[in-house]
Structure formats: structure tokens, C-alpha cells
Amino acid sequence: MASGILIYAEVTKSGYVHPVFFTLAAKAQELSAKLGGAEVSALIITSCGKTELFKEGFEKCGFDKVYAIEGDEYQNYNTELYSNAAINVINEIQPEIFLIGATTQGRDLAPRISSSIHTGLTADCIELDINATNRLAATRPTFGGKLMATILCKNNPQMATVRPGVFKPLEQDVIKNTQIIYKNPEINITPKVELLEFIRGIEEEINDIDSAEIIVAGGKGMKNADGFKLLTDFAKTLGGVVGASRGAVEMGLADHNIQIGQTGKTVSPKLYIACGISGAIQHIVGMEASKRIIAINIDPQAPIFDVADIGYVGDAFEVIPEIIDKLSSK
Ligand SMILES: Cc1cc2nc3c(=O)[nH]c(=O)nc-3n(C[C@H](O)[C@H](O)[C@H](O)COP(=O)(O)OP(=O)(O)OC[C@H]3O[C@@H](n4cnc5c(N)ncnc54)[C@H](O)[C@@H]3O)c2cc1C
Questions:
Q1: Mean pLDDT over all residues of the chain?
Q2: What is the C-alpha to C-alpha distance for residues 245 and 261, in angstroms, rounded to an integer?
Q3: CA 265/CA 288 separation, integer angstroms
Q4: What is the distance of C-alpha 130 from the center of its chain?
Q5: Looking at ligand 1, which atom is closest to the CA of residue 302?
Q6: Which of 71, 105, 123, 169 could form a disulfide with 22 if both were Cys (CB 3.0 to 4.6 A apart)?
Q7: 218 has pLDDT over 50
Q8: 157 preceded by cis ω (within 30°)?
């Protein structure tokens, strides 16, 4: 018997459930209603005793069940161990839909699972819906963002990874008495990869952009490496992370993984500071859901000012050091 919608709850290296999970939980409630009240469950794979810590969160998100796989061997993410565990649960409960956040981990895990269980995966989606035949209609950009493709999957589970930040978490709790079901899948594989050491590096910064509360984003107007160094100092002063426009990425000033916009990430931080970014529509769609937007641009006609709550017309190379100085002297 197929059992509704299953969502992967990624536990991050810092020990919390990745924010994309809560946005998927909200979307799942919507999809469940369209499917006539399909069951919504979560899958969590983590170290011993962790699931119970997140129980309240699961209950507030309206989960009927949580399938928990715990063990010391799951303390650090491992593609083979995690996919083996997930496949075990999927084979047992046979969800109609299985959703995963398109985080670094999710992008690694999802294709491994879908190929093993011979089902389709629509990666990096920006919209999910249920069509007239009750199938998942998963939409993602294609041809470099020039077209949107809505993809249906013939088999179950219909799998999709979804970009962090494209859906909103629930505005009001949907309290359920969530049942936690512990599973202990057999491990008949010896992982080929062993984690020797975890070094905080650019990957972590890239992950952080999905959940960062403050993003300082730079565009072509930041001109060179020194401009981006200034942004890094600005972000550090504010306790935020650096993002970039495609213009800046194409100039080689920033990594594509921190590009924000139609062909990059979709973000919704509490504060987004756009520095030297003109505000092309392809950039705006990736950041307009931010709670507060501040724009610094030398051109008073720049379209970024149309979406900004606060605009500063001036040279970013002059104003940013001044702000850093003021904040640092406090
Ligand atoms: C299919 C497609 C997909 C795309 N996807 C994306 C995407 O995901 N993300 C994205 O960002 N773009 C995307 N683009 C590109 C987008 O159309 C713009 O070209 C891009 O966003 C421009 O980047 P920018 O604002 O950094 O550069 P520009 O448009 O060149 O703007 C630079 C700005 O800096 C200002 N400036 C210059 N000097 C200073 C200074 N000293 N101080 C302050 N301000 C200064 C200028 O006034 C100007 O407004 C896409 C385009 C296409 C066709």
C-alpha cells in the first residue's frame, strides 16, 4: 500500500535540521490536501538519541509519522550508508512522493536513491503541484534558465529535490501527534569512503547561504577581488555570508555556488544587502522574498532600488568601509 508523501529531514553538521526541510513540510501540507489528505511523513537519519530532540518541530509541522534511523555510523553523512538506510524505509513504506532539499547533501543523496530504486528524479525544482491525474508536477528551470519545464514521473516514488528558499515555512503550526517509528536497517555494505577529518571551508559557507539570516551580495559594481574582500569583511562584521550576482560570477569574482537568482540560489534572509548589483529580473527572483533589502548603488536609476526597503545612492567602496568602521568601534 502506497503511503503518501515522505520528506527527508537533513541533520546538518551543526546539529540542526536544515531549514529547507521546514519549507518542504509546508508544501507537503498543500500537496497532501490536493491528494485528499495523503499522509505526510519524514525520514531522519542521524546519530543516537537525536530524533527525540526534534520531535516538537515535527509535531508543529503536522507530520503524521517520522521514520528515524539512528546509530553511531550515521553521525557523519556518508552517501552509501545514508542511501542504504533511506532505500530500506522507502521499500517498506512505498511513498508516492519523496522530497529532498537541494542542498549539497540532498543533491548527492537523491540521485543515488532514485537510480537504485529505478524511479525518476526531478532535480533542483522551484515549484511543486499535483496535476489533474494526481501526479506530482515538478517544475525546474532548464536551458540555462530560459525555460521552465514541468516534469512528471511515471513511477513511484515520484522524487524531487527542491531549492532551499523557494517555499515558505508554515505561517501557523499544524499540530499533530507525530508518531516516531525507529528503524534499524541491515547494513550489508562496506562504505568505500571514510571521513577522516572535517575542515570548515568554502563548502560550508556555500551551505550557509541557504540558511543565512544576513547576506551581503556583490555584483559587477564591486569590480575586482579587493571589492569582494571588502564584502567578506562587511559580511563578517554583520555575522552574515557573501552572495553574488551572475555578473560577478561571470567576472570570476565569486563561485557559481553562491550565485543568487534564476540560475543560482533562491534566498530569503532577514537582511539582504545588494552592493553594486543593478537589479536585473533574473537576480530579483532569487532574493525578493528577503525580509529587508538594502541596496547600495552609484546609479539612482538602478532597478534594484524598486525592490529595496532602504536605498543608498553612492560608491560602495566608500560607504562600506565607513559602515564597517562604525560597527567595529561599537
Ligand atoms: C537566462 C538568464 C539567467 C540569468 N540568471 C541570473 C541569476 O541567476 N542571477 C543573476 O544575478 N543574474 C542572472 N542573469 C543575468 C542578469 O540578467 C544580469 O545580467 C546580472 O544580474 C547583472 O549582474 P550585476 O547586477 O552584477 O551587473 P550589472 O548589471 O552590470 O550592474 C552593476 C551595477 O553596479 C553599479 N555600480 C558600479 N560601480 C559601483 C560602485 N562603485 N558602487 C556601487 N554601485 C556600483 C552600477 O550602477 C550597476 O547598477 C541571467 C540572465 C539570463 C539571460
A1: 93
A2: 7
A3: 12
A4: 21
A5: 49
A6: 169
A7: yes
A8: yes
Q: Is 317 in the pocket of ligand 1 (CB under 6 A)?
A: yes
Which three cell numbers, joined as nine digits, stand for 54? 526534534
In Å, the largest CA–CA distance within the chain is 64
Per DSSP, helices labelled H in the chain are: 19-34, 55-60, 79-93, 104-116, 202-211, 225-238, 246-250, 281-284, 304-307, 316-328
- Helix 104-116 with 79-93: angle, nearest 10 deg: 50
CA–CA separation, 220 and 204 (whole Å): 24
Is the beta carbon of 19 within 6 A of some atom in ligand 1? Answer: no
Beta strand 310-313 pairing with 241-244: unpaired
Q: Is 245 in the pocket of ligand 1 (CB under 6 A)?
A: yes
Residues found in the chain: 330
CB 137 within 8 A of CB 125: no
Kindly give the distance from the C-alpha atom of residue 220 to the centroid of ligand 1, in angstroms, as a whole number. 6
pLDDT at 191 over 60: yes
Which of the four CATH numbers 3.40.50.620, 3.40.50.2000, 3.90.650.10, 3.40.50.970 does domain 5-183 have?
Answer: 3.40.50.620
| 278 Cβ inside 6 Å of ligand 1 | yes
Cβ neighbours of 135 (radius 10 Å): 17
Mutation probe of ligand 1 site: the residue of 262, 288, 301 with most atoms within 8 A of C-beta: 262
Report whether residue 122 contacts ligand 1, using a CB cutoff of 6 Å: no
Candidates 3.40.50.1220, 3.40.50.150, 3.40.50.720, 3.90.76.10; correct CATH number of 202-328?
3.40.50.1220
